[in-house]
Write the structure tokens for this entry.
Amino acid sequence: MTHVAIIVVDMIPGCINEKDRIRDLEELARQIESIKKLASTKKPTYLIEYGRLELGYGHTLPEITRAAHDPRVVYKKWDSAFYDTTLDEQLRARGTQHIALCGINTSACVYYTARDAQRLGYNVITSRDLISDFEWKDPAWKRFKDHELPYFERETTFFERVEEVIAQL
């Protein structure tokens, strides 16, 4: 598959360590390793960060940034990485048609990024180990399990493991 870009959404300390939210740290560690494997494919990588740095959200985790090929940072103000940013223009300038999507807070930012990507004509590819949300004890988990995860399974090119995504690239 040609014309692929990797989009990494909100893998930043401020989103990972949100106050009053519960994360499965083992799952998070597995997700980071999966994103690093995906980044090793040498596809152009866009690191999506929350643009209000004064609020302390920080930058993409260094281990992901180091693994990324030709990383470009896109700052966003809203849930979708496409809304009011230059991401679409940057992707089109490279001839991108397919997006390998990964990130955290899938019940919000990853979900809305995927929806906008499809609305703009991109094919979204992801896997269960590239996206995550809060732990099952957190109220956001029910929304993720009941709404967003079935959306990804039904509406995107969805796999169980990152190795399956890599095989498609």
In short: The mean pLDDT is 88. The CA atoms of residues 40 and 67 lie 6 Å apart. Residues 4-168 form a domain with the Rossmann fold fold (CATH 3.40.50.850).
